[in-house]
């Protein structure tokens, strides 16, 4: 990267926030590259919204600094920062038509001739034919796009998005994910997006910071976070993972031989973030869709060199594109396996004896000192985010 392209980076240095004795965000360092689509992902109360609000100037950090490019904006009020924020509640003016809603920021700055800019912005969000409509005449997804247009017309260097799709139904949310990504690609402005929705972050973002309890647990491209989680929280929070307790029996070159109960598994040493000495405890991870399932009668047909476990099917759920199985194995109860519905085997029903097998290269290893169920989503009665969100 040249100096020209790094000037627009968002840099957080030692940024932290406490409320009395409660630490919402532990001091963290984060660089968000200019022109990228960046997601802060985490469960309610993890510190992601507080971090976003510190970038916006809506929350004063207890420690650290916020830089936009070379400019230290830590002490600047929100209206003096080159950022705009889109919230979950779009806050459109109900008495103004869409044209005037989008023009609002320009008029406030005393710009008289706004027609061309507003038309261009409405075309960008594909709402050129809705200029004379009032907000209540638009769908939730259209109102969301108006809010984005209103924020972008001020040409901020950074657009902050705080759970912007949270109020939409699932199908519309998926459409808007693609729409927001298209808009970001066209305008080339840095988007920083806060969400608790893993699929949303993975669909849209170039880079994702997974936050947990006020800290960045892991940072990386979506595919890398999914394929190579470094903690049990990331393994469980991003999709589902089967985590099996095992012990390192031997190490030979690039491969670790593991003992899990009576079974033997192998793991690429490069994919293990735990200590790799003989006798060390490790959590063996494998994603449900990476596992193949064979009826016990067909065990002899499984190719050599694959990791394998025996078990019994306890539940099977047909969900269209795949069937999701739950399997109890002597080494681990409640293993999840997702099998695509290409050629369904009617024998794989609850009670069936089966063999789970997979390519050892798809296995990852985590430090067994961590909580095995960290990041597993629990059903909560209160969906609201608190101060540490």
Automatic annotation (TrEMBL):
Record-level Gene Ontology MF annotations: ATP binding
Function: Part of the ABC transporter complex PotABCD involved in spermidine/putrescine import. Responsible for energy coupling to the transport system.
Sequence similarity: Belongs to the ABC transporter superfamily. Spermidine/putrescine importer (TC 3.A.1.11.1) family.
The enzyme's E.C. designation: 7.6.2.11
InterPro entries documented for this protein: AAA+_ATPase, ABC_SmlMolc_Importer, ABC_transporter-like_ATP-bd, ABC_transporter-like_CS, Mo/tungstate-bd_C_term_dom, P-loop_NTPase, PotA-like, PotA_ATP-bd
Enzyme class (EC, first level): translocase
Pfam families documented for this protein: ABC_tran (PF00005), TOBE_2 (PF08402)
Name of the protein this chain belongs to: Spermidine/putrescine import ATP-binding protein PotA
Catalytic activity: ATP + H2O + polyamine-[polyamine-binding protein]Side 1 = ADP + phosphate + polyamineSide 2 + [polyamine-binding protein]Side 1
The ABC transporter domain, residue ranges: 10-238
SUPFAM superfamilies, alphabetized: MOP-like, P-loop containing nucleoside triphosphate hydrolases
Gene: potA
Parts of the chain that traverse the membrane: none
Cell inner membrane listed as a keyword: no
ATP-binding found in the keyword field: yes
Subunit structure: The complex is composed of two ATP-binding proteins (PotA), two transmembrane proteins (PotB and PotC) and a solute-binding protein (PotD).
Keywords: ATP-binding, Cell membrane, Membrane, Nucleotide-binding, Translocase, Transport
């Amino acid at each position: 990267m040249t100096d020209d392209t790094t000037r627009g980076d968002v840099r957080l240095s030692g940024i932290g926030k406490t409320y009395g004795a409660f630490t919402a965000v532990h001091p963290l360092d984060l660089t968000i590259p200019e022109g990228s689509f960046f997601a802060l992902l985490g469960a309610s109360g993890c510190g992601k919204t507080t971090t976003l609000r510190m970038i916006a100037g809506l929350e004063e950090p207890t420690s650290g600094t916020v830089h936009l490019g070379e400019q230290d904006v830590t002490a600047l009020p929100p209206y003096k920062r080159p950022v705009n924020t889109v919230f979950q509640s779009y806050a459109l003016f109900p008495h103004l038509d869409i044209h005037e809603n989008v023009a609002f920021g320009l008029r406030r700055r005393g710009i008289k001739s706004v027609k061309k800019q507003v038309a261009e912005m409405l075309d960008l969000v594909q709402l050129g034919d809705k200029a004379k409509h009032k907000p209540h005449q638009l769908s939730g997804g259209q109102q969301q796009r108006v809010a984005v247009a209103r924020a972008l017309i001020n040409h901020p260097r950074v657009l902050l998005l705080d759970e912007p799709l949270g109020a939409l139904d699932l199908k519309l949310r998926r459409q808007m994910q693609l729409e927001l990504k298209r808009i970001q690609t066209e305008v080339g402005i840095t988007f920083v997006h806060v969400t608790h929705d893993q699929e949303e972050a993975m669909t849209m973002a170039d880079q994702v910071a997974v936050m947990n309890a006020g800290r960045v647990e892991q940072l990386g491209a979506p595919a890398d976070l999914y394929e190579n989680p470094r903690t049990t929280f990331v393994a469980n929070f991003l999709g589902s993972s089967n985590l099996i307790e095992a012990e390192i029996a031997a190490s030979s070159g690039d491969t670790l031989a593991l003992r899990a109960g009576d079974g033997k598994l192998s793991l690429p040493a490069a994919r293990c973030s735990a200590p790799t000495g003989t006798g060390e405890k490790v959590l063996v991870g494998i994603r449900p869709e990476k596992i193949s399932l064979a009826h016990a009668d067909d065990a002899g047909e499984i190719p050599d060199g694959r990791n394998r476990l025996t078990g019994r099917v306890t539940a099977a759920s047909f969900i269209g594109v795949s069937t999701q199985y739950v399997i109890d194995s002597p080494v681990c109860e409640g293993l999840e396996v997702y099998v695509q519905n290409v050629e369904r085997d009617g024998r794989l029903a609850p009670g069936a004896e089966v063999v789970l097998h997979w390519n050892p290269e798809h296995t990852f290893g985590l430090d067994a000192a961590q909580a095995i169920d960290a990041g597993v989503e629990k059903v909560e009665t209160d969906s609201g985010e608190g101060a540490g969100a």
